[in-house]
Amino acid sequence: MAMPAQSAALLAAAVAIAAAAFLLPPSSRLSWTPQGHFADMILANATIYTADPARPFAGAMAVRAGRVLRVGAYESVKELKGRHTHELNLSGNVVLPGFIDSHVHFIDGGLQLTRVPLRGVKSKDDFISRVKEATRDKHPGQWILGGGWNNDVWGGDFPAAAWLDDISPDNPVWLSRMDGHMGIANSLAMKIAGIDRSTDDPIGGTIVRTAEGEPTGLLIDTAMVLMFDVIEKVSTHERRDALLRASRHALMRGVTTVVDVGHYFPGVSAEKTWQDFSDVYEWAHSMQKMLIRVCLFFPMPSWARVSELIGENGRSLSQWIHLGGVKAFLDGSLGSSSALFHEPYEGDPGNYGLQVTDMDSLLNRTLESDKSGLQVAIHAIGDKANDMLLDMVDKVVDLNGVKDRRFRIEHAQHLAPGAANRFGKQGIIASVQPDHLLDDADSAAKKIGFDRAERSSYTFRSLLAGGAQLAFGSDWPVSDINPLQSIQTAISRKPPGWEVPWIPAERLSLDESLKAHTISAAYACFLDHAVGSLSEGKYADFVVLPSTSWDDFAGDLPAHVLATYVSGKLAYP
User: Residue ranges of the Amidohydrolase domain (predicted)?
Assistant: First the structure.
């Protein structure tokens, strides 16, 4: 599709500015004192949504040394224009704060971009064809890895090792489901992992079997660790490339900050996350290769190590790397029938889901983490899992006292009646992923029944009404990083092919959805002093959209961003 002349002109001007852009300031800390008088860059004739309630909209913005110097009417900004100030006339284009993705598995996402892509596969034949194609350039014994499949798309039947064995007899295969809580292995991979009919289910996991007791190849939750232990290790070089690839992908979508919760899972060594920190993130920082800001969460079992690291370095290693806290799990996922509910799954009266972590252990580690000043984030999807966490937070407050802890529940996907109000009363962050409802809208009723699905699923409006802070994310690579689509989903709640919204009472407004991907997301990771709004003194992280007025933007959200700036420098394209 040809680019409109105005958009092309904007890009040309942006590239020219980038070519002459200033270097980042030598100081690596968040404190900032403006030097000199004039701006490095001025955005003029813009439609700027600031996400700052003190000044929601503006027409111009001045940037100096990577920070917002002034935002307001052009008359108040033009006095900051000097001989070397670059002025960018946006001709009305909408400008937003850089998006914050509140929940990603960032390096895994970068790796997945080069693996077998199974998202959107609509049939068994297509599934098999994708894997067969991947075997062509593999040597015997080389692993074939991929993910993103969703059995609900092709009717609900789960894949089996038998689908893969004929096309990959000499290559072990592991393909994760879209939710990351289930995967399928071929027979060779199971043989390497030592999985057979005599292998016991691990605590918090399931080896799916035939009626005769033979493993089908499907592994759920902690059972996946049996496969993780034998999959060939990803090299440091590959992981570093994955970070850079992931960063460019995020910038293309207008994301300037991510909360990386790593790839820890119960039963998996916490050391992998720490290796990513030292081998990848610290390397990228030392080599000046960081492209976006990251807030890192570490496995809760290593809370003492995180506390020590923060004690030595503070919460921000630089403007790029922030130490968020610790993450844990309580249950599985809806798609894998392992999210923990008060009532059983439809057609499976003995299955209430899986509790993947012992509550006594979780409480004790949460108390210690919280006492040491760490932010705590815990995965909970089912209504029972969320209630258990809400009860646990009450105990933490009773034992450790009231403070600004910003406890996070990751996903908060299905809530029992009254639970949404408890989030607000307890000051808990609901870290939610709107685009997940696009996948679950068709399957939730089949999994837990129509009435339960309608009253409990993705209760964004109820959470806000109860006083909770919403933080939007993608859970990439479970869903793609795409804030504009996520915002549209939260507003419309219309999955593909649907004529009417799913649970329309839970829809959000445009402003509420934008804040959940900007200032509320910044608040949710203690970065609201530095990012999340276009306010004076904050980093000049922003996106330029093709919409040329606010009415144009609000009436038809664009599918892409025109340009992404980080610290006032053009980062995409």
Answer: 88-572
pTM metric for this prediction: 0.89
Those residues whose C-beta lies under 8 Å from the C-beta of residue 505, and which sit 6 or more positions away, are 461
293-308 in b/e form (b: 16+ CB < 10 A) is bbbbbbbbebbeebbe
Range of the domain at 65: 31-97+533-572
Q: Tokens 């999807």 identify what position?
A: 381
Q: What is the residue-wise DSSP string for 384-399?
A: HHHHHHHHHHHHHHHH
68 belongs to a structural domain = yes
SS (H, E, C) 319-357: CCEEEEEEEEECECCCCCCCCCCCCCECCECCCCCCECC
Q: Is 473 helix (H, G, I), strand (E, B) or coil?
A: coil
For residues 563 and 14, give the distance between their C-alpha atoms in angstroms, rounded to a whole number.
Answer: 8
Tokens 């408890």 sit on residue: 422
What angle in degrees, to the nearest 10, is found between the helix axes of 359-371 and 303-313? Answer: 10
The candidate with the shortest Cα–Cα distance to 428, out of 477, 377, 484, is 377
CA–CA separation, 519 and 51 (whole Å): 6
Structural tokens at position 113: 């971009």
Does residue 544 belong to any structural domain of this protein? yes
Peptide bond preceding 477 in cis form (omega within 30 of 0): yes
CATH number of the domain enclosing 150: 3.10.310.70
Q: Tell me how far apart the alpha carbons of residues 215 and 208 are, in angstroms, rounded to a whole number.
A: 6
What stretch of H or E contains 365?
Answer: helix 359-371
The token duo for 371 is 């006492």
Domain end (from 180, 204, 229): 229
Q: Residue 7 CB: number of other CB atoms within 10 A?
A: 18
Are residues 206 and 217 in contact, defined by beta-carbon separation less than 8 angstroms?
no
User: How far is residue 271's CA from residue 277's CA, in Å, rounded to a whole number?
Assistant: 10
DSSP string, 309-321: HHHHH-SBSSSSE
243 token code pair: 């970070």
Q: Is 522 within a domain?
A: no
Per-residue pLDDT tens digits of the chain, which is 573 residues long:
444 444 545 544 444 444 443 333 333 334 444 556 899 999 999 999 999 999 999 999 999 999 999 999 999 999 999 999 999 999 999 999 999 999 999 999 999 999 998 988 999 999 999 999 999 989 999 999 999 898 988 888 899 999 999 999 999 999 999 888 899 999 999 999 999 999 999 988 999 999 999 999 999 989 999 999 999 889 999 999 999 999 999 999 999 999 999 988 777 889 989 999 999 999 999 999 999 999 999 999 999 999 999 999 999 999 999 999 999 999 999 988 999 999 999 999 999 999 999 999 999 999 999 999 999 999 999 999 999 999 999 999 999 999 999 999 999 999 999 999 999 999 999 999 999 999 899 899 999 999 999 999 999 999 999 999 999 999 999 999 999 999 999 999 999 889 999 999 999 999 999 999 999 999 999 999 999 999 999 999 999 999 999 999 999 999 999 999 999 999 999
116-117/569-572 β-pairing? unpaired
Length of the chain: 573
Measured over the CA atoms of residue 162, residue 163, residue 169 and residue 170, the dihedral's sign is: negative
128 with 215, same domain: the answer is yes
